[in-house]
Amino acid sequence: MKSFAELILHLDQSNKTGDKVEVLMWFFDQALEEDKIWAIAIFFDKKPKRQVSTAQLRTWSQEKAGIPNWLFEECYQAVGDLAETISLLLPPPSHPEKISLNTWISILKALSGKNEEEKKLEIYSVWDKLGPMERFIFNKLITGGFRIGVSQGLVIKALSKHTGIPIAQLTHRLMGNWDPSQVSLEELLTPEEGAQEASKPYPFFLAHPLEESQTTTFYQDQWIAEWKWDGIRGQVIRRKQQSFVWSRGEELLSDKFPEILEFMEALPEGTVLDGEILAFQEGTPLPFSSIQTRIGRKNLSKKQLKDAPVAFISFDLLEWKGQDVRNMPLYQRKEILKNLQQQLHHPAFLFSESLTFASWEELAAKRTASRQVLAEGIMLKKKDSIYDTGRKRGNWWKWKIEPLTIDGVLLYAQKGHGRRADLYTDFTFAVWNGEALVPFAKAYSGLTDAELKEVDAFVKKHTKEKFGPVRTVKPELVFEIAFEGIQASPRHKSGIAVRFPRISRWRKDKLLSQANTIEDLKALLTSYG
To answer: Catalytic residue among 200, 228, 334, 381, which?
Structure first.
């Protein structure tokens, strides 16, 4: 556990990719086998199920530390992270022990069969054996709020250097629905030759952003252009007479989309398709919010199925009749895929048609009109490209439309996490509605470290009210907020929801009165919603 805590500390303090890979390799080189697999599982968001509520954890830590609620609250507001606050307030460990990460995970899992008093005593026992940093990590595991500043790709890169297994193979093996408590590290990383889980997807191939000036270096007849749809990227898999729908985030979504499962029954054995899941009705895509109503629901009602029917827009073929065809040229994969779609002729199974264009200028004009078909822009793919792994530059490009922007006023602020736990970095922005300011978006990315420190100082100096971790700020600072989409939303006070909001720039050149209005938002909604 101490080694894992040191690993997390180093990862959180470093901004350099090389340093993060080195410290990951250090951990894999000296950790116990059972600790390695749990560390990998945590990085791949396969944490043990939560057994203790944050309210219980707060109460127990206050009792253990012997402090009143008001003092705990003040400390929490100063630190900004519950797990870290608890680890700092607890008295020193009375019986420090060196115990493995695997053992602590086992203790957490065993809490499921205990009552509240038994859980409290077990947590007390753990706190008495761990130092502050290890307590912090343990508390994070309890609460489930474990966000680490390292990508899965970096973990795989370090693991590849540690094991000697190629990155592509490791990426494939670590995808899918594996359980760290049911499989050893050796079984996970070195499966039997030819063995493959029926449900396991392939690593997704990702595109790089394209600048318009880059097209001047491209030979036009070498490229396929198609819409970049705004949905859920996914793979549909038909193997061993079973159907599976995976999202790019490695969520198994099969039960959420019965329409897709229906056409999948007709797919040939050993077929894997890549594409986009969209809410689709009467030949037209619906806004992304429509498909969101299908996610997170245990049971889908007839109304939800009727109001937001979905379709799978397929754009690539990865496996065909049991054979991996990712090394086949793209134009050949697409030809097989189009014939398959035409043969099945199912309303939930669509094919991503290529866009015709006589010049890059003509394609740029089509890109400008992307929002009219509810697309995010255009994809450009080399006709003879293979289906690669990860984000490789050169063969696939995403040429997105410029984001929508609105100038908003900073209204609320909250502290961040990890390295930003002592800074106000999570903000809520508002627009004018008459003489009142109405919140319309939350954003936490887009400012430089220097700007964040400047805004943090402003928040601390101009706080008007406190609501738990949230601060109401004197309305004065204006920021340009960029976002990808906009739609009506009765759940929001403004009546409008924006998609993927982020801070584009700090408008120091604008006065408070010059921020945009709710009417400006509604005008965008009319044009693009």
So the answer is: 228
SS3 of residue 208 by DSSP: strand
Active site residue 228: yes
Percentage of the chain modeled with pLDDT above 90: 47
Of 20, 14, 25, which Cα lies nearest the Cα of 158?
25
Do residues 379 and 398 lie in contact, with contact meaning Cβ atoms separated by under 8 Å?
yes
Residue 71 amino acid letter: L
Separation of alpha carbons 244 and 247, rounded Å = 10
Strands 208-209 and 396-400: parallel
Closest CA to 235 of 277, 265, 293: 277
Strand pairing class (390-391; 396-400) = unpaired
CA-angle at 6, arms to 169 and 189, nearest 5°: 20
- The closest alpha carbon to 209, from 447, 374, 403, 396, belongs to 396
The highest-confidence range among 9-13, 170-174, 375-379, by mean pLDDT, is 375-379
Distance CA 58, CA 66 (A): 12
Residue 332: pLDDT band (50, 70, 90) is very high
CB 139 within 8 A of CB 131: no
Sequence-distant (6+) residues with CB within 8 A of 527 are none
265 CB neighbour count, 10 Å cutoff: 10
Cα 24 to Cα 14, 19, 390: the distances in Å are 12, 9, 20
Write down all domains in the chain, each with its CATH number in brackets.
Answer: 2-143 (1.10.3260.10), 205-400 (3.30.470.30), 404-528 (2.40.50.140)
Q: Which residues of 458-468 are buried (b: 16+ CB within 10 A; e: fewer)?
A: bbeebeeeeee
Tokens 């109001």 belong to which residue? 307
Burial of 82 (0-12, 13-18, 19+ CB in 10 A): buried
Does residue 10 have a pLDDT over 50? yes
Strand residue runs (E) in 153-267: 205-206, 208-209, 223-229, 232-239, 242-247
User: 0.85 exceeded by the pTM?
Assistant: no
